[in-house]
Design goal:
Layout lengths: L2 H18 L10 H8 L14 H11 L4 H25 L4 H12 L3 H4 L6 H21 L3 H16 L4 H12 L10 H23 L3 H12 L6 H11 L4 H13 L8 H15 L12 H14 L9 H15 L9 H6 L1 H6 L15 H4 L4 H13 L7 E5 L2 H10 L7 E2 L16 E6 L7 H5 L3 E9 L11 E8 L3 H13 L3
Parallel strand pairs: 1-2, 1-3
Antiparallel strand pairs: 3-5, 4-5
Helix pairs in contact: 1-4, 1-5, 2-21, 4-5, 4-7, 4-15, 5-15, 5-16, 7-8, 8-10, 9-14, 13-15, 20-21
Length: about 500
């Protein structure tokens, strides 16, 4: 085993170690994680919320026992593979050992540590962007057309994971047109690779077509409820924080892509970052959508810096460059990760508020960061639902209907009973089991929707009462209430079918 390999394995092991200590036991899983885990039980070529790749990983997690260890293992693995790809990119750019160590350090001690704590499509999205850019580097360097076909496969898997990777092409293709690499468009292999990529993503496109393109509905809902609150200036500010300990490396990359002769073939990448960021800013995208842009620039910057400090007195700057990202991580450790209790965060509110971490998607500041609030109250909800369910008559004929996917997913993950909660929200609208004849209803309602629930629904049942609520005041679901309705006097199934049709006719 070579020295380089040993060092690389050391970085990967450190990555897994850090990911394991960055989440406090005060928190449950995050609401999105429950939805993605539930997709393992409904495998398809597409979903209302995401393409199918995440469901494949969820199915593997399910086969491995569906434990927290495996749920957290896969995003950490994708983060570790991102370090590996950056390492390989530096080698492709003829970087020395110092360049490899600098690049790996910058990627390791970055916002990816936060991103990789969550089981969401974002970790694989960043890996897909980084891998695709690495393939582009290999193609530009060798002009071997096999890399065009490799790129098609990488893009297809990225697309089947998260449609966000389309922005990569939107930024890359016009950038190629402005450089000598435009000759790529004259090669027949380029178009054959496009066909291969299209064939690989075709099953998902067919699924979208057959289901009236729910991605469009999802994007409209996202724009109306979340992106409307995105301020472009805040998007730009956030980009500085994602790799704040590596900004000097990324800026060095941009300088080198113009003035460093060995990078002459790669000038396209100078334009890529600006074209891509412009598109994100124009569409008022969420700030983290752009994270996949930066790791490959760390490769360029590391090689350039290593070349400039390999001789003379500059060699003594090498430890300084390595220390900078580590120092920034140390400064951010107590702020940017869910390793502190809600009580600690509230006691140090000003530190979080100054950095904008208390601002939620509604554009307002709250007590704790939104992602953290989305990691509280779920187990409490599931335990209370289980307790109520066990006391119901004809409980196997009980419909558990939730307001949102987080509630449904959490109940399904934690339940000790043979129940499956559903919702008209996100993918759950396709997962109702209408083969059962329902007699009872457990209605899980967000606090803003609870005022008239008993009054409006009780007349259709023999008995009704409030079964409990989420009492964790730090949870985003604080006050969410469990309404219990027993002995239906109406056909619940027909009401549900009508509601599903009503929801979908606007898609």
């Amino acid at each position: 085993m070579t020295r380089k390999t040993i060092i690389l394995l050391g970085f990967i092991l450190l990555k897994f170690l850090l990911q394991s200590i960055l989440i406090s036991s005060d928190y449950d899983l995050q609401r999105d994680e429950y939805l993605h885990l539930d997709q393992a039980h409904h495998l398809a070529w597409g979903f209302q919320s995401v393409p199918p790749f995440t469901s494949w990983i969820s199915y593997i997690i399910y086969l491995l026992g569906n434990t927290i260890f495996w749920i957290k293992f896969f995003p950490a693995l994708f983060g570790a593979l991102t370090i590996f790809i950056v390492w390989k990119a530096i080698e492709a750019l003829n970087g020395n050992l110092f360049a490899l160590i600098l690049g790996a350090t910058c990627v390791l001690f970055s916002s990816l540590l936060r991103l990789n704590t969550l089981y969401q499509p974002n970790s694989f999205d960043v890996l897909s962007w980084t891998t695709f850019y690495y393939v582009v580097i290999r193609y530009f360097k060798t002009e071997n057309t096999k890399w065009l076909f490799v790129g098609a496969v990488v893009f297809a898997f990225g697309f089947l994971n998260k449609y966000n990777i389309v922005f990569l092409l939107i930024g890359l293709l016009p950038s190629i047109l402005f450089t000598e690499q435009r000759k790529t468009f004259a090669k027949k292999e380029f178009y054959f690779s496009l066909i291969i990529g299209l064939l690989l993503i075709l099953p998902n496109l067919i699924w979208q077509y057959k289901n009236n393109f729910p991605v469009i509905h999802h994007l409209k809902e996202l724009a109306n409820t979340q992106l409307v609150n995105v301020e472009r200036i805040n998007f730009i500010k956030s980009q500085l924080f994602f790799f704040i300990g590596s900004i000097f490396v990324i800026l060095s990359a941009l300088f080198a892509l113009i003035f460093y002769l060995p990078f002459k073939k790669f000038k396209t990448f100078f334009l890529v970052i600006f074209f891509t960021l412009f598109v994100f800013i124009y569409f008022k995208a969420k700030d983290y959508y752009a994270i996949g842009l930066y790791p490959i620039y760390i490769s360029f910057g590391s090689v350039f810096i290593a070349e400039k400090v390999k001789q003379g007195w500059r060699k003594y700057l090498q430890p300084v460059f390595i220390a900078i990202p580590i120092l920034f991580f140390a400064l951010m450790y107590n702020i940017f990760f869910p390793n502190k209790s809600p009580e600690y965060i509230i006691a140090h509110k000003q530190s979080y508020q100054k950095l904008g971490l208390l601002r939620w998607e509604d554009g307002k500041d709250h007590s704790i960061p939104q992602d953290y609030a989305d990691m509280l109250g779920w187990k409490e909800l599931a335990i209370k639902v289980d307790s109520i369910y066990l006391k119901l008559p004809s409980r196997e004929k009980t419909l558990i209907l939730c307001d949102n996917y987080g509630q449904a997913g959490a109940i399904n993950y934690y339940t000790q009973q043979n129940i499956k909660a559903v919702s008209f929200n996100a993918d759950y609208i396709d997962w109702f089991d209408l083969t059962k004849k329902y007699e009872n209803l457990l209605r899980i309602k967000e606090i803003k929707n609870t005022d008239n629930e008993l009054k409006e629904t009780s007349p259709f049942f023999q008995f009704s009462f409030v079964g409990g609520s989420i009492t964790n005041k730090y949870s985003r679901e604080f006050g969410t209430t469990i309404f219990v309705f027993v002995g239906s006097t109406i056909d619940i199934n027909k009401r549900i079918e009508a509601e599903i049709l009503e929801k979908k006719k606007y898609w």
